[in-house]
Amino acid sequence: MDIRHLQYFLEVARLRSFTKAAEMLYITQPTISKTIRNMEDEWGVTLFHRQGRGIELTDAGRIMYQQAQQMVEAFQRVSDELEDLMNLKRGHLRIGLPPMIGSSFFPEVIGQFHHKYPQITIQLIEDGAKKVEADVESGQTDIGVAVLPVNEEVFHYYSFIQENLLLLLHPSHRLAGRDSVSLVELADEPFVLFREDFTLHDRIIRECIGAGFEPHVVYESSQWDLISGMVAANLGIALLPETICREIDASRVTILPLDNPSIPWQLGMVWRKDRYLSFAAREWISFTRSLLGEKG
Asked: What is the pLDDT of residues 86-135, one digit of tens each?
């Protein structure tokens, strides 16, 4: 027995006629009669009293009618909700987002997405890029923004930012008047870094070691504005992405290019390769890829 059989039964009960039900459902009367007979055989009950040309529900038929109504209505609700999802009318997204880039890109992006799909709700989980990547891998979030590269055996991704880290100095610093600074010149400087759960923490330390020194880290924070504030208070130097530096008050700190080597910073939207993506998640990927542009 499938949902169509219940719909046939309900229509016969409503119209009290096999002939009228068959006409209403655009099927033959033998088809609908056979369906009801099969239902009776399957359940071992009689569903209708046949009285001349009319029919009435039996006690078993009335029980079946009540339950069949609920099942058909539940089925219709599921169908409607799935149709809404497929038409992107509703849904829920869990997106992992590093706090240092959230304010730069995503209020406007989320606003435009919400305008287009007002019934799709978005839950933002703010964490360092390492945690974001781990949460996407574990399934705690659907999609995340992570620092590239990521494990391509695990993730699909697209890149939407490719830029370099810039050096932040106090305006009175001995290097503040330069056009650019090489990394090795920072060997004796106190560094202000992001916390260890941020990918940039490891990236900067790795680049410094590659240049021949281990940085002297004096402060760590999860907030880029606090890091820039520490530089403005002459507590150390910092390396931050160009995108973040555009948000910083240039009257309080000196911002210079870093060379020999420069340190690249690339952000991407990432999601698991082997996990089902909802219709809303697929549209988020398509929408943001179109809006932000794909780099690399």
From this structure: 777 888 999 999 877 766 678 889 999 999 999 899 999 988 888 999 99
Ramachandran bin of 9, using left for φ above 0, alpha for ψ from -120 to 50, beta for the remaining angles: alpha
Which range marks the domain in which residue 18 is found? 3-86
Closest CA to 283 of 63, 113, 47: 113
Strand, coil or helix: 122 = strand
d(CA 190, CA 193): 10
By three-state DSSP, how is residue 194 classified? strand
Torsion sign over Cα 153, 157, 163, 166: negative
Indicate the burial class of 279 (C-beta count within 10 angstroms; 0-12, 13-18, 19 or more): middle
Q: Please check whether residues 45 and 103 belong to one and the same domain.
A: no
Query: How many structural domains comprise the chain?
Result: 3
Contact 58, 43 (CB under 8 A): no
- Asked if residues 105 and 112 have their Cβ atoms less than 8 Å apart, the reply is no
Cα–Cα dist 269/291, whole Å:
13
Same domain, 187 and 253: yes
What pTM did the predictor assign?
0.70
Nearest CA-CA partner of 191 in 175, 171, 212, 169: 169
The distance in angstroms from the start CA to the end CA of the chain is 54
